[in-house]
């Protein structure tokens, strides 16, 4: 069995907030797979689907973010899930808004949910998908920022990020974390390179327009 965990806070008041992008990714994924995430167990709610002969469990901790490890460790122990089959999806302020990165391991950084999971598992050697939410403006409080909602100008970027993260889950389950990193992370780099290569042309076009105006 694979365990895919999306991090967030339970409650309508937290719907759509930056800190709940892990939940939103699981909502999107469960819709694609035609299941619901409603079974209450181990301090969370879960839903299961089968694909390519494998059983995949989607889970949302219901403990609030800071105690997410209770749910993750509980499910891992109860179902005897190997650590290499765990994938956690969460928001990351160290990535630009809409960026998606798959990692095989790592520290918790500033994320309290990840800190709780590592503490309860006693091991940081598990895969994760980080979804960038950007950093707050200088002088703004981090807690208010992560519990705030995305402005309309970021809706498209975050919708694309959720879909990209869902692709990462599918690759992880079918082909493993290495291929997920290669495909998801490299795709983003390729998009950035393509965007950078367009800039000189855009600049040239702008200069041509200015020249035409002056003539």
From TrEMBL:
Residues 198-215 have a biased composition (Basic and acidic residues). GO terms for molecular function: peptidyl-tRNA hydrolase activity. Its EC number is 3.1.1.29. It catalyses: an N-acyl-L-alpha-aminoacyl-tRNA + H2O = an N-acyl-L-amino acid + a tRNA + H(+). PANTHER family: PEPTIDYL-TRNA HYDROLASE. NCBIfam families: pth (TIGR00447). This is Peptidyl-tRNA hydrolase. The lineage of its organism: Bacteria, Bacillati, Bacillota, Clostridia, Eubacteriales.
């Amino acid at each position: 069995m694979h365990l895919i965990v999306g991090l967030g806070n339970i409650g309508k008041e937290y719907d759509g907030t930056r800190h709940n992008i892990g939940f939103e990714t699981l909502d999107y994924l469960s819709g694609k797979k035609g299941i619901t995430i409603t079974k209450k167990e181990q301090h969370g709610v879960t839903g299961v689907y089968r694909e390519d002969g494998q059983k995949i469990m989607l889970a949302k901790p219901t403990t609030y973010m800071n105690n997410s490890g209770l749910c993750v460790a509980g499910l891992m122990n109860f179902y005897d899930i190997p650590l290499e089959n765990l994938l956690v999806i969460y928001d990351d302020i160290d990535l630009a808004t809409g960026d998606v990165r798959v990692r095989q391991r790592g520290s918790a950084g500033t994320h309290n949910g990840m800190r709780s999971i590592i503490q309860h598992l006693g091991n940081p050697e598990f895969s994760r998908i980080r979804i960038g939410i950007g950093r707050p403006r200088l002088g703004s409080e981090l807690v208010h920022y992560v519990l705030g909602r995305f402005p309309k100008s970021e809706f498209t970027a975050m919708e694309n990020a959720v879909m990209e993260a869902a692709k990462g889950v599918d690759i992880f389950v079918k082909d493993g974390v290495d291929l997920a990193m290669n495909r998801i992370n490299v795709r983003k780099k390729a998009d950035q390179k393509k965007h950078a290569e367009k800039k000189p042309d855009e600049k040239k076009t702008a200069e041509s327009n200015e020249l035409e105006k002056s003539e």
